[in-house]
Design brief:
The protein has 272 residues and is α/β, with parallel strands linked by helices. The chain has one domain: Ribonuclease Z/Hydroxyacylglutathione hydrolase-like (Metallo-beta-lactamase, Chain A). It contains seven helices and 13 strands. It has a seven-stranded mixed beta sheet. The chain has a six-stranded mixed beta sheet with strand order 7-8-9-10-11-12. Helix 6 packs across helix 7. The longest helix has 11 residues.
Length: 272
């Protein structure tokens, strides 16, 4: 397991084959993907806070190789406001894509230059650093679009580049229409939360996500190339056993591939 600059050097030195995506897990819902010559950080959670069960594997100032930073929604373990100024400085050419609904507040809070922050909303598709990125609304308990603007505060992203298609749901529950939206893509790699939700967490302000069964019942019928469960390891009281997901997938959708990732350990997926 590599950390810090050693991890950055490994990412820089890794060369994906044609039609291949390389990926690294940083814990929680944070992933790094590399496709061809593009390095994308999704929800990098790098602030070292006391409540974390897993310490950050990279310091914000070590993140020197980003082309794109994707933030799915404005919670601290997804859009890590304290870390963003250092990330922006360390990767001076990186672009930051986030929900349009939170763009103004995030810019004001982080000081990241407005010309580097790209607002997204379902069903927009934008080309960022030559990478095609589509926004898909996520229901973090609720869809909750702004009644005036129609902007969704929580998004997932479909990333298309180099013949590979990757979906990161962000924090999301199943809602009517989600599967239909995703059917338009042949997704090679998907990252889904499995920590679920309940009354106790909701009443204490911890809004939830798919259960492991719901994540399976999204991934299975859509036949994702490889589905990675996540968002189950970082905070006490908001956890799940990832083997529950992989076992359920194996029983119910035996032809679908899943994997429990290891921290900062590269894995690869080929386009189908």
């Amino acid at each position: 397991m590599k950390v810090g600059k050693d991890l950055i050097n490994e990412i820089d030195g890794s060369v994906p084959a044609t039609g291949e995506v390389l990926a690294w897990w940083l814990g929680q819902h944070s992933f790094i993907i590399k496709i061809k010559d593009r390095i994308i950080y999704i929800d990098p959670y790098l602030s070292d806070k006391d409540k974390r069960l897993i310490s950050p594997f990279i310091k914000p100032e070590e993140l020197t190789n980003a082309h794109i930073i994707l933030g799915t929604h404005d919670h601290s373990d997804h859009i890590d406001r304290p870390a963003w100024p250092a990330i922006a400085k360390a990767s001076p050419s990186a672009k930051f894509a986030i929900p349009e609904a939170v763009k103004k507040n995030v810019i004001e809070a982080t000081g990241v230059s407005a010309d580097r922050v790209i607002g997204m909303n379902d069903p927009e598709t934008k080309e960022i650093c030559s990478v095609k990125i589509s926004a898909v609304a996520s229901a973090h308990e609720f869809l909750a679009p702004d009644p005036k603007t129609g902007f969704y505060p929580c998004l997932g992203y479909v990333i298309e580049y180099g013949g590979v298609t990757v979906y990161h749901s962000g924090d999301c529950c199943i809602y009517d229409g989600l599967a239909s939206k995703l059917k338009k893509w042949k997704i090679d790699l998907a990252f889904l939360p499995i920590n679920g939700r309940d009354a106790l967490r909701y009443t204490t302000g911890c809004i939830g996500n798919m259960t492991f069964q719901e994540a399976a019942d999204l991934a299975g019928p859509l036949n994702f190339g490889l589905t990675i469960p996540s968002h189950y390891d970082m905070f006490a009281g908001n956890r799940e056993n990832p083997k529950s997901f992989t076992d359920y997938m194996a029983a119910k959708y035996p032809t679908c591939k899943t994997m429990i990732p290891r921290y900062t350990t590269v894995f690869s997926v080929k386009a189908r």
